[in-house]
Design goal:
With about 290 residues, the chain is α+β, with helices and mostly antiparallel strands. It contains ten helices and four strands; from the N terminus they run ααααααααααββββ. The protein is elongated, with a radius of gyration of 57 Å. The protein starts with a helix and ends in a 13-residue tail after the last strand.
Length: about 290
């Protein structure tokens, strides 16, 4: 390759690099793009150095962050530093109860010798005084800042009393048994009668309720209703039947008495004795056959 062609290529490369550096100079705050371009070309071996290389600029020292009080240790600093006490701090110290000129010197010395951890421990989020005053108060025994009151806890809502399940549901089975017992006593099931039975078993203790099955409580309840019938409306027993023999028999799981001759049916009660409630072969006892 001839020397002229090589020089032409170098000139083209030099021009392109110079243009590129000048274009980037505006974006990257380069103050002398031509000097930078020349340095790049020399280092790439495209051209020879024609001037002395640029000296590296020394970095300006970064000043340390200023403290809030100027000469006083701060909470955020983790590194121990030499502490000084300003005239204002000394004046604030003398306003503290128990402060004297004599103990000022010893407290200043203790403040300067204290570890940064000790100073940081005096500072809280609510502290409005500088570290020296807080240290002085701790030495003089001044009361520490009162802690922020804890938020009041809301009283827990009382739990609602657990509703006791009804002992009587009067589902299809229970209603069938209740109806059978009530009708065998010559009465009829009504909503009022069902509610009376519920009120009858509800006050019972768990032990008393568990003595017999629900059917047994139904029979006992119906018996109490029989006893409530006024004596004047109860059927009268004929005198002619006083000498008649009575035979026990069971009807719908209830023990009754039947006249051996007349076929009259009686129910034994505590108050009225044997009370006639029907006749064999008639009414509710139509399926009952006479003994004779």
């Amino acid at each position: 390759m001839s020397i002229n062609i090589i020089d032409t290529i170098k000139a083209t490369i030099s021009l392109d690099i110079t243009k590129a550096v000048r274009a980037a100079a505006e974006l990257h705050n380069i103050t002398d793009p031509d000097l930078l371009a020349q340095e790049l070309l020399v280092r790439l071996g495209v051209t020879e150095r024609t001037s002395a290389p640029a000296k590296k600029a020394a970095k300006a020292p970064v000043p340390p962050p200023a403290d809030a009080e100027g000469d006083e240790g701060s909470v955020g600093s983790k590194k121990d530093r030499k502490r000084t006490v300003s005239a204002k701090q000394k004046k604030d110290f003398m306003a503290i109860e128990g402060a004297t000129e004599e103990n000022l010197k010893s407290i200043i010395k203790g403040y300067k010798d204290a570890s940064q951890e000790t100073i940081d421990g005096l500072m809280t989020a609510d502290s409005k005084e500088n570290a020296f005053i807080l240290f002085a108060k701790s030495v003089l025994g001044a009361p520490a800042p009162a802690p922020a009151p804890e938020p009041e806890k809301k009283a827990a809502k009382p739990k609602a009393a657990k509703k006791e399940a009804s002992r009587v549901k009067f589902n299809a089975t229970e209603l069938k048994i209740f109806k059978k017992i009530v009708e065998s006593a010559g009465s009829t099931v009504t909503d009022e009668l069902k509610q009376e039975f519920v009120d009858y078993v509800t006050p019972m203790t768990a032990e008393a309720f568990a003595v017999v099955a629900l059917e047994g409580h139904m029979r006992a309840f119906v018996d109490t209703k029989k006893q409530e019938v006024p004596a004047q409306v109860q059927p009268q027993v004929d005198d002619d039947d006083d000498e008649e023999d009575l035979v026990e028999f069971t009807n719908n799981e209830e023990t009754l008495l039947m006249g051996a001759v007349s076929g009259k049916i009686y129910r034994s009660t505590a108050e009225a004795g044997d009370v006639q409630v029907g006749v064999a072969g008639e009414g509710q006892f139509k399926d009952v056959k006479r003994v004779a």
